[in-house]
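Our consortium's second objective concerns turning raw sequence data into structural hypotheses that experimental partners can test. To show how far this objective has progressed, the report includes one record in full. It was chosen at random from the queue rather than selected for favorable results. The single chain below, 143 residues long, was entered without modification.
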Amino acid sequence: MLLRGAFTGVVSGILMGAFIKALEVLSGKKIYVLLLNVDFIPGFKDANLSELTEFSLHLIVAVFIGILFAFIVEYFHFYDKRRQYLIAIGITSPTVLLYFPLTILAVKETPAPSDGFALLLWSIGHMAFSIFLPIFYKTKQKG
Protein backbone atom coordinates (compact mmCIF):
# COMPACT_ATOMS: atom_id res chain seq x y z
CA MET A 1 0.00 0.00 0.00
CA LEU A 2 2.77 2.48 0.87
CA LEU A 3 4.67 1.89 -2.35
CA ARG A 4 1.51 2.01 -4.47
CA GLY A 5 0.46 5.23 -2.73
CA ALA A 6 3.92 6.76 -3.14
CA PHE A 7 4.02 5.76 -6.82
CA THR A 8 0.56 7.24 -7.35
CA GLY A 9 1.62 10.46 -5.64
CA VAL A 10 4.78 10.77 -7.75
CA VAL A 11 3.01 10.15 -11.06
CA SER A 12 0.10 12.43 -10.15
CA GLY A 13 2.49 15.11 -8.86
CA ILE A 14 4.57 15.02 -12.05
CA LEU A 15 1.47 15.29 -14.24
CA MET A 16 0.04 18.07 -12.11
CA GLY A 17 3.32 19.97 -12.23
CA ALA A 18 3.50 19.66 -16.01
CA PHE A 19 -0.13 20.74 -16.32
CA ILE A 20 0.34 23.77 -14.06
CA LYS A 21 3.51 24.71 -15.96
CA ALA A 22 1.55 24.54 -19.22
CA LEU A 23 -1.20 26.70 -17.70
CA GLU A 24 1.47 29.23 -16.65
CA VAL A 25 3.00 29.31 -20.14
CA LEU A 26 -0.41 29.73 -21.78
CA SER A 27 -1.75 32.32 -19.33
CA GLY A 28 1.34 34.22 -18.18
CA LYS A 29 0.18 33.77 -14.56
CA LYS A 30 3.07 32.60 -12.35
CA ILE A 31 1.22 29.65 -10.82
CA TYR A 32 4.03 27.18 -11.53
CA VAL A 33 6.44 29.53 -9.78
CA LEU A 34 3.99 29.57 -6.89
CA LEU A 35 3.75 25.76 -6.87
CA LEU A 36 7.50 25.34 -6.52
CA ASN A 37 8.22 28.37 -4.36
CA VAL A 38 9.80 27.76 -0.95
CA ASP A 39 11.59 31.09 -0.49
CA PHE A 40 9.40 32.04 2.48
CA ILE A 41 10.60 29.05 4.55
CA PRO A 42 13.44 29.97 6.92
CA GLY A 43 16.71 28.70 5.51
CA PHE A 44 15.43 28.69 1.91
CA LYS A 45 15.11 32.47 1.38
CA ASP A 46 18.61 32.84 -0.09
CA ALA A 47 19.10 29.20 -1.12
CA ASN A 48 18.75 29.75 -4.91
CA LEU A 49 17.46 26.21 -5.49
CA SER A 50 17.24 24.71 -8.97
CA GLU A 51 13.88 24.04 -10.55
CA LEU A 52 14.55 20.29 -10.22
CA THR A 53 15.20 20.63 -6.48
CA GLU A 54 12.06 22.73 -5.98
CA PHE A 55 10.05 20.26 -8.07
CA SER A 56 11.40 17.42 -5.94
CA LEU A 57 10.11 19.19 -2.83
CA HIS A 58 6.71 19.45 -4.53
CA LEU A 59 6.85 15.71 -5.24
CA ILE A 60 7.54 14.93 -1.57
CA VAL A 61 4.23 16.58 -0.71
CA ALA A 62 2.53 14.69 -3.55
CA VAL A 63 3.92 11.40 -2.20
CA PHE A 64 2.48 12.10 1.25
CA ILE A 65 -0.92 12.85 -0.28
CA GLY A 66 -0.68 9.70 -2.42
CA ILE A 67 0.09 7.59 0.67
CA LEU A 68 -2.80 9.21 2.58
CA PHE A 69 -5.08 8.46 -0.36
CA ALA A 70 -3.90 4.83 -0.47
CA PHE A 71 -4.38 4.42 3.28
CA ILE A 72 -7.96 5.72 3.15
CA VAL A 73 -8.82 3.58 0.10
CA GLU A 74 -7.38 0.40 1.60
CA TYR A 75 -8.47 0.92 5.22
CA PHE A 76 -12.08 1.67 4.29
CA HIS A 77 -12.14 -0.72 1.30
CA PHE A 78 -13.07 2.01 -1.18
CA TYR A 79 -12.26 -0.08 -4.22
CA ASP A 80 -14.80 1.43 -6.60
CA LYS A 81 -13.45 4.38 -8.56
CA ARG A 82 -16.41 6.65 -7.75
CA ARG A 83 -15.55 6.61 -4.06
CA GLN A 84 -11.87 6.99 -4.85
CA TYR A 85 -12.59 10.16 -6.81
CA LEU A 86 -14.61 11.53 -3.89
CA ILE A 87 -11.78 10.74 -1.47
CA ALA A 88 -9.19 12.28 -3.81
CA ILE A 89 -11.23 15.46 -4.18
CA GLY A 90 -11.78 15.59 -0.43
CA ILE A 91 -8.10 15.36 0.47
CA THR A 92 -6.91 17.59 -2.40
CA SER A 93 -9.44 20.42 -2.11
CA PRO A 94 -7.80 21.99 0.97
CA THR A 95 -4.58 22.43 -1.02
CA VAL A 96 -6.39 24.95 -3.22
CA LEU A 97 -6.60 27.24 -0.19
CA LEU A 98 -2.80 27.25 0.05
CA TYR A 99 -2.94 29.77 -2.79
CA PHE A 100 -3.60 32.58 -0.33
CA PRO A 101 -0.81 32.11 2.23
CA LEU A 102 1.66 31.11 -0.50
CA THR A 103 1.01 34.27 -2.53
CA ILE A 104 1.14 36.45 0.58
CA LEU A 105 4.37 34.94 1.93
CA ALA A 106 6.24 34.59 -1.38
CA VAL A 107 9.38 36.64 -1.91
CA LYS A 108 9.53 35.76 -5.63
CA GLU A 109 7.05 37.31 -7.99
CA THR A 110 3.82 35.31 -7.86
CA PRO A 111 0.20 36.20 -8.61
CA ALA A 112 -1.57 38.56 -6.25
CA PRO A 113 -3.80 36.97 -3.60
CA SER A 114 -6.70 38.82 -5.23
CA ASP A 115 -5.99 37.50 -8.77
CA GLY A 116 -9.14 35.49 -9.42
CA PHE A 117 -7.96 34.07 -12.74
CA ALA A 118 -4.69 32.81 -11.23
CA LEU A 119 -6.69 31.26 -8.37
CA LEU A 120 -8.94 29.55 -10.92
CA LEU A 121 -5.94 28.11 -12.79
CA TRP A 122 -4.33 27.03 -9.49
CA SER A 123 -7.60 25.30 -8.53
CA ILE A 124 -7.91 23.55 -11.89
CA GLY A 125 -4.34 22.29 -11.57
CA HIS A 126 -4.97 20.89 -8.10
CA MET A 127 -8.26 19.32 -9.11
CA ALA A 128 -6.38 17.63 -11.96
CA PHE A 129 -4.15 16.08 -9.27
CA SER A 130 -7.27 14.73 -7.55
CA ILE A 131 -8.39 13.17 -10.82
CA PHE A 132 -4.97 11.61 -11.42
CA LEU A 133 -4.85 9.86 -8.02
CA PRO A 134 -7.61 7.29 -8.68
CA ILE A 135 -6.51 6.84 -12.28
CA PHE A 136 -3.03 5.69 -11.26
CA TYR A 137 -3.82 3.94 -7.98
CA LYS A 138 -4.12 0.20 -8.34
CA THR A 139 -5.73 -1.62 -5.42
CA LYS A 140 -4.94 -5.20 -4.45
CA GLN A 141 -8.64 -6.04 -4.50
CA LYS A 142 -11.28 -5.36 -7.09
CA GLY A 143 -14.58 -3.94 -5.87
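The partners drew two points from this record. The chain has a mean pLDDT of 95. Residues 53 and 82 are 35 Å apart (CA to CA). Both points have been shared with the crystallography group to help prioritize constructs.
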